[in-house]
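A reminder from the course coordinator: this example appears on the midterm review sheet, so study it carefully.

Given structure:
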């Protein structure tokens, strides 16, 4: 066995349909008495449900979570946490809501209880992001890692199919890049393969019946494993491209991942053959890039960046930004090759095998 370093990120994970009812016990275990519950405005009803269940232990609700954690929202949420003297943050929602809890915890020490409703995987990482003046900066800090994660598949029954598949591709992307990360290790590889397999096999079940608890549960389970990989090893070309596109052109997160992933993998395929073989095996298709493209296509996910609002005239700037800050990647980066990759993801063509 090769040399490796492995640092586990320890959260307490409560999994299963109906596990939302256990949030009260978890707050009791933490000894918290002044909980701030976080959500988006659209899903305030989720936060109210938690508040009803926790009763007097809830100090307040902040329902302003938004994509990419704008600094103004983070400041308002921190002020609320301070004024309420909140001693725990319960985030119910997708990566945007979990991200808001992390942005608060960066300055206001309080344990996070994350209750994910998408497959973004942020709940399993110590990574935070904040957007200021159109620039999104990210960092890692162990105190951002949620203390408790409650996965209840029934919370995802109403996640629309196209967004479910896009979010699932977001999770798969963490594991796929984890399989060729320079600092991967035997544990991250096991998690990555198992995570991709669980998600790929769950998607057809979700498409057939969005309220299929077993399929939703498998997809959440896979998202947890893939998120754990993201929190453990460094990411490469795919994540950097999505980060650039999201920050500079304000593209939606999950859908951008779904469009870019097949092409980022095609770019790296010749220099990461063993990772590609493992991904292909996990999705049960002969080739990783075209296999993931087909998985998305067969189940209605967006595959073209142009459908997300990126203009052809944006591609040169996107390529310039993508090459501006060098980072580790299996295949060396060249501006012309990145421009080609971006054009393929923009038009939504199927990657060659
Ligand atoms: P999101 O949280 O913004 O949710 C996307 C949309 O889905 C929103 O409109 C939301 O209201 C809706 N939604 C969420 N759950 C739903 C449900 N169960 N039913 C119906 N609608 C639902 O997006 P996301 O893709 O979950 O997360 C993206 C954000 O998370 C980005 O800011 C990204 O940078 C961040 N992220 C961070 C990490 C990390 O490790 N730090 C990892 C992945 C993503």
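Designed residues:
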């Amino acid at each position: 066995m090769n040399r490796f370093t492995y640092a586990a990120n320890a959260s307490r994970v409560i999994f299963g349909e109906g596990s939302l009812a256990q949030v009260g016990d978890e707050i009791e275990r933490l000894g918290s008495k002044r909980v701030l519950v976080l959500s988006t405005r659209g899903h305030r009803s989720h936060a109210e449900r938690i508040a009803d269940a926790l009763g007097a232990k809830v100090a307040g609700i902040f329902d302003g979570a938004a994509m990419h954690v704008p600094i103004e929202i983070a400041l308002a949420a921190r002020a609320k946490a301070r004024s309420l003297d909140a001693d725990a943050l319960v985030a119910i929602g997708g990566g945007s809501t979990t991200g808001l809890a992390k942005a608060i915890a960066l300055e206001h020490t309080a344990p996070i209880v994350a209750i994910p409703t998408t497959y973004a995987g942020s709940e399993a990482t110590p990574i935070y992001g904040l957007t200021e003046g159109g620039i999104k900066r990210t960092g890692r800090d162990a105190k951002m890692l949620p203390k408790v994660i409650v996965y209840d598949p029934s919370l995802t029954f109403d996640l629309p199919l196209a967004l479910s598949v896009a979010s699932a591709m977001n999770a798969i992307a963490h594991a796929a890049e984890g399989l060729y990360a320079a600092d991967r290790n035997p544990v991250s590889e096991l998690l990555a393969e198992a995570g991709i397999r669980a998600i790929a096999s769950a998607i057809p079940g979700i498409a057939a019946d969005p309220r299929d608890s077993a399929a939703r549960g498998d997809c959440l389970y896979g998202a947890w494993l893939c998120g754990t990989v993201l929190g453990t090893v460094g990411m490469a070309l795919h994540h950097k491209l999505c980060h650039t596109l999201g920050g500079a052109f304000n593209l939606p997160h999950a859908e951008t991942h779904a469009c870019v992933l097949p092409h980022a993998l095609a770019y790296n395929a010749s220099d990461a053959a063993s990772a590609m073989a493992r991904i292909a095996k996990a999705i049960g298709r002969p080739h990783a890039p075209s296999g993931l493209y087909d998985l998305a296509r067969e189940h209605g996910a967006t595959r073209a960046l142009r459908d997300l609002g990126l203009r052809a005239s944006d591609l040169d700037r996107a390529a310039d930004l993508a090459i501006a800050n060098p980072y580790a990647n299996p295949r060396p980066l060249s501006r012309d090759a990145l421009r080609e990759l971006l054009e393929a993801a923009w038009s939504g063509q199927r990657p060659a095998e």
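The first helix runs from residue 23 to 30. DSSP finds 13 helices and eight strands in the chain.
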